[in-house]
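Continuing the batch. This is chain 6 of the set; chains 1 through 5 are on the previous pages. Same settings as before, nothing changed between runs. Recording input and output for traceability.
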Amino acid sequence: MSCSSCASGKDGTPRGCKSNGTCGSDSCNKLTVFDWLENMQLPDGQEAPPFVEVRFKNSRKEFYRFPETLKPQAGALVITKAESGYDLGRVSLAGQLVNMQMKRKKVDSNSSSIGTILRLANSKEIDLWHEVRTKETEVQKKARELAIALRLDMKISDVEFQADGKKATFYYTADQRVDFRQLIKDMVQAFSIRIEMKQIGLRQEASRLGGIGSCGRELCCSTWLTDFRSVSSGAARYQQLSLNPQKLSGQCGRLKCCLNYELDAYRAALKKFPKAEVKLHTEKGVGIFQKMDIFKEEMWYAYKNEWMTWHKLSLETVQEIIKKNKAKIAVPSLEENTEKEPKQETVLFDSGVGQDSLNRFDRPKGKRPFKKNKNKKHYNGSSKKV
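Output for chain 6:
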């Protein structure tokens, strides 16, 4: 992960700031927001809201109220009030869009969950923040070793230090309830800081760590997706996908969130198709459904005892046969209603103009002339040599 502020190395490869999307340049950040009202003035008599959105490590964002003497802009480093001490974050959104975001996330302006911004961060606080951030990798490694020594069935996926260095939040994933009381005692003794444990799901872990999906792009959960809805295997069945867990599961080990993106469109399209349990009765036999093509509106049926031979029918043809079955009108067979595919002529080469050929400048290949060998002895019609 790199952006324009990371520059490149000697060989042309990006160096990368190794901040995992929190460098603040808005080029590689996770869940970035574009303020399209930034350069617009407010109408007369209307004041800007006293709230801003502050982004912390990875995708954690919270709303804060700032005093009248302070008007932080987007990108400014601010000191926020914490339970024990202070924390440092970057303003990700300010102005009228904050009200829209608060309404979207159903956050009341008078709610106690809204924190307070104390002041703008000075150089000493920023240096301490960077110094604390560099310790997170070593602390995470040591915490994993302590968890393995206690044989705890859990995985510590990330560590987030408070800006003043007095508190650290450990994010972990576990399938069952974990008794980590002894682990907290060992970590307090090893790190000499206040410890907070937060359990997150596998989807939240993937969004925090990031990565590249099977589509070749960054994970949706780490770039723009914030609403982790449940995904069931029925979404794959509606889209006629093979129930292969290796192809349908993402990096989090759960079903891919993108299975829900086109699910409504597939459900609307499937309303035209008859159910798979409906059989086509003909004089030759009973046709049983095999598969369908939703986009081309085609369906395949096979006779009850002839499973290897499939007959392709259009959706209109299937609906007509069903109507005839309900009206008790005889249908001869499925073969009479199958769609015949037009034969496509195989073209070896066809240029953009349609008249030239690739070998138009090559010499024609004819038969080689027969050359007589003068040194070879020839025989006449008799048995004697000449």
